[in-house]
Amino acid sequence: MSAKFLESFGSKLAEQWVATLLTPAFVFWAGGAAAGLQRFGWKPARTWFSQQPEPLQIAFLVGIFCLIVASAFVVQRFDLPVLRFLEGYWHPWLCPLRRWLISREAKRSQRISARWQELQKLQRTTEQRDELIQLDWQQHYLPLELMPTRLGNILRAAEQRPLEKYGLDAIVCWSRLWLLLPDAVKKDLQEARADLNTAVRFWLWSLLFIFWTFWAWWAAPVGIISAIFAYYYWAIDAATNYGELIEATFDLHRHLLYQSLRWNLPPDPNEERRVGRQLTEYLWRGF
Questions:
Q1: From CA 283, how far away is CA 274, in angstroms rounded?
Q2: How far is CA 51 from the centre of its chain?
Q3: CA geometry: angle at 193 spanning 187 and 196, to 5°?
């Protein structure tokens, strides 16, 4: 029956089906099917399916395919809201938790800074030099205005560094600079952002997977472990890579923004920060 199915709907649909098998949406629904079969039994489902006429079997499989594709499309629409949630942009009723987490991040930042300064004064051993390097990297991803989550701090630091170095507000300037970038740079940025969005989407699917706990107890630990992996071992790395590319883009291509707007790029760093703030104000307010 599977051969007739592939013949009926052509090679393109078969390719789409294979691609769908590799998505988190398929894993979610496959896990739900496994949980349901565990709860209600495999034999009744197999008996019911085998008793149906072949056109209805094909329609059933197509319906499953459409359900997976549609659910993947719907969840994808939530990439940005979920990313902002993971950054720490929360509803006001979560403000107490947000303040507590930011306070904790501030204490961690102080500990890192104090230890870094302590090591700077020492005649360092190999282990202490390695520790100093690690502390330097950790400070690099801690912005002046802290966020409640590690992911939020990484992305906030990437947004703030162009302002600190060049006086350019990344949020205001980015859409203009993007239009001027070479295609190769755009491609690298798009791939890095797509990787971050995929990690965020996988995290959301992992949480949704816990829903199947009503049918199978193992759905909760699988969903929780997957969410932890998606955040700490995927989204964090993807955000770090994306943030580094944003900073590098301002480092190497900010002159395109000045040239396009017919502003002079000052050679002196202090003067550039002043002019960069003026340019940001001009782009935001028009004067």
A1: 15
A2: 45
A3: 145
